[in-house]
Write a structure and sequence with these properties.
Number of helices: 4
Largest sheet: none
Helix content: 55-70%
Structural class: mainly alpha
Strand content: under 5%
Distance between the termini: 52 Å
Order of helices and strands: HHHH
Length: 144
Amino acid sequence: MKTANFRKTAAILSVVAVLGTAGVAAANPAYHSSAPLSQEQMTKAQELISAYRTAVAPLEQQVNAKQAELQALLYSATPDKSRIEAISKDIGAIQGQIYASEASLNAQLTKEGIPVDGPQGNRQMAHGYGHRGGHGGGHGGGHW
């Protein structure tokens, strides 16, 4: 009985996680840089980031769904080790696709003469966290 309820709860949480990611991906693209940019560069950066978000959103949803499934398996009464390992590999492969897309975004930004602000700057902007990592009050990961 407890296992059935746990699985129902895990399934519901998986759906919530997948749907919740869509809202982040649909956020207004923003780009902040420590270097001054022309209006054309700012517009181009926002276009590139918007395209990146559109391409990566389904991948992030897949990662969230797989992570929820993995959590359900890890804490089930009888964890299936082979299934846990398979899902872990799937998550790694999908995250690899996301990183490859991010590398492509950074290459496109660089080609346009738009500075890439290191591992936290553009990544947070590209993933919709907004200025200062979306935390406000100067608690974010970058210095913009």
